[in-house]
Amino acid sequence: MAKEKRDWTGDILLLAAVGVGAPRWAGAMLAADVGVIDAKLSNALHVLNLISGMAMGVLEAVAIYYMLGALRGTKPKTTKGKVNWRWWGIVVFSLGSLALTPFILAPYIQARMQNFGMTGVLSTAETLNRWSIAVTLAPVFIVGGVAFARGIKKPTETKKRSTRSAAQAAPRKKYACGGCDERYVKQQSLAAHYRHFPEHKK
Ligand SMILES: [Zn+2]
After folding, report:
1. Are residues 177 and 150 part of one domain?
2. Ligand 1 mean position to 198 CA, how many Å?
3. In a shared domain, residues 116 and 179
4. pLDDT tens digits for 28-77?
5. Ligand 1 centre distance from Cα of residue 10 (Å)
6. Is position 142 within any domain?
7. Across the chain, where does the E strand assignment appear?
8. Whole-angstrom Cα distance, residue 39 to residue 95?
């Protein structure tokens, strides 16, 4: 049997999702401990946030594509008829990621259109709260969904393999009896069948 192929896409996505969150965590933890972050440190965090923000954007798109691909390779129930938690996990986290998208992108698009800046669009405490929670949740949903989706074979791969093995297991029976449903791989077998049932031969 062939060795299980490692799911590199899943591993990289998971690492990247955790990695892009690191500057945020660092900043939040520093703020919690130190209270006010001095200008030098804040500038360093700003650069890290710029990089991680851009990476996050790409990651979000690739991860949703990856999660939905894995979803097609799995089913809500296992072969034994039990609940397949991986399927449900992917559904919850991929739908969550999709649902977060308008909450995150719409204010940004408005800000760009009106040349306001984010705080101009998110002028009330409520909108600001909602947006910051959505932005915080986005990478969490990616980590969760990719963790569930990791290692699931894409349906195209499994399909290719199964049709190949089926073709190997059962060679084509191209010699069909004219009088019944029997089919044979070899012409001699069909001839033998006709000897037993001469009435089948037309
Ligand atoms: Zn026959």
Report:
1. no
2. 8
3. no
4. 888 888 777 788 888 888 888 888 888 888 888 999 999 998 888 888 88
5. 54
6. yes
7. 175-176, 183-184
8. 39
